[in-house]
């Protein structure tokens, strides 16, 4: 069973029951000139994850292991977006409004899709989720159960929002979660730092935190 150096201690995982989850690496969040940047965010804080994540995904695919992508977004008629979510953010820059890359966070729009560098390949699962967590109102639980998955290697954006929510949801459902510090990103450096600390604190209250090169080495052994 491979093991990687992690906080708060080594993380061991079984290659037959571990999936890589790549959360919301979407153009609306990551592209310069897009929705994320238009809200005043520094997208370079997220874009630094692209290169290590591409390397991890290549190694993961080469090892023939399951890879699941998620995309946060809504139907064009917004019927799956509750007012409590829709009414957030700057007026005229809300979900469904026209943005640089199409209607913001709407399924089928250019901005809703995953950045070119990390596009899914044939056979990989893509989960469209209306919430922050990847389990809420999606088929993720069923897919993991069907495939006998027990552990998740969690990556993507943003650390304190959709990554954290998904890890917490996964924890409550009995999954062991390893979060990769170099493959998750926040627009806010302080949230990145504290978000990662919160996962591994108290003996790993939500899971483990490591760096992607140690996972790549472990699966190539
Ligand atoms: C946000 C996400 N930050 N994917 N979404 O609204 O974290």
Describe this structure as you would to a colleague:
This protein has 221 residues and is α/β, with parallel strands linked by helices. It has one domain (21-183, 198-214): 3-Layer(aba) Sandwich (Rossmann fold), CATH 3.40.50.850. The protein has nine helices and ten strands. Helix 4 runs parallel beside helix 9 (212-220). The longest helix has 16 residues, at 189-204. It is globular. The relative contact order is 0.21. The protein binds dicarbonimidic diamide. Dicarbonimidic diamide binds next to helix 7.
Written as H for each helix and E for each strand, in order along the chain, the element string is EEEHHHHEHEEEHEHEHEH
How many distinct folded domains?
Answer: 1
Identify the strand order in the major beta sheet. 7-4-3-8-9-10
SS element count, helices = 9
Would you identify the CATH H-level superfamily? Isochorismatase-like
Overall outline:
globular
Oligomerization state: single chain
| Mean residue pLDDT | 96
Can you tell me the CATH architecture?
3-Layer(aba) Sandwich
The first-to-last residue Cα distance is 10 Å
Radius of gyration from CA coordinates: 17 Å
Protein name: Isochorismatase-like domain-containing protein
InterPro entries: Isochorismatase-like_dom (IPR000868), Isochorismatase-like_hydrls (IPR050272), Isochorismatase-like_sf (IPR036380)
Keywords: Hydrolase
Pfam families: Isochorismatase
């Amino acid at each position: 069973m491979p093991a990687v150096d992690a906080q708060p201690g080594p993380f061991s995982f079984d290659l037959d029951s571990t999936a890589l989850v790549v959360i919301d690496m979407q153009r609306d969040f990551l592209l310069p000139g897009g929705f994320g940047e238009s809200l005043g965010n520094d997208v370079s804080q997220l874009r630094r994850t692209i290169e290590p994540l591409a390397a991890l995904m290549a190694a993961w695919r080469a090892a023939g292991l399951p890879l699941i992508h998620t995309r946060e977004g809504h139907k064009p008629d917004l019927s799956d977006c509750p007012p409590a979510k829709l009414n957030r953010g700057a007026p005229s820059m809300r979900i469904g409004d026209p943005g640089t890359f199409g209607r913001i966070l709407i399924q089928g729009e250019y901005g809703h899709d995953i950045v070119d560098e990390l596009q899914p390949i044939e056979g990989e699962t893509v989960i469209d989720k209306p919430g922050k967590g990847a389990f809420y109102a999606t088929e993720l639980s069923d897919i993991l159960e069907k495939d006998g998955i027990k552990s998740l290697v969690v990556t993507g954006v943003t650390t304190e929002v959709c990554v954290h929510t998904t890890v917490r949801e996964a924890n409550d459902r009995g999954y062991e979660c390893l979060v990769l510090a170099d493959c998750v990103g926040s627009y806010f450096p302080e949230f990145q730092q504290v978000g990662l600390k919160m996962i591994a604190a108290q003996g790993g209250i939500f899971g483990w935190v490591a760096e992607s090169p140690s996972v790549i080495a472990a699966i190539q052994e």
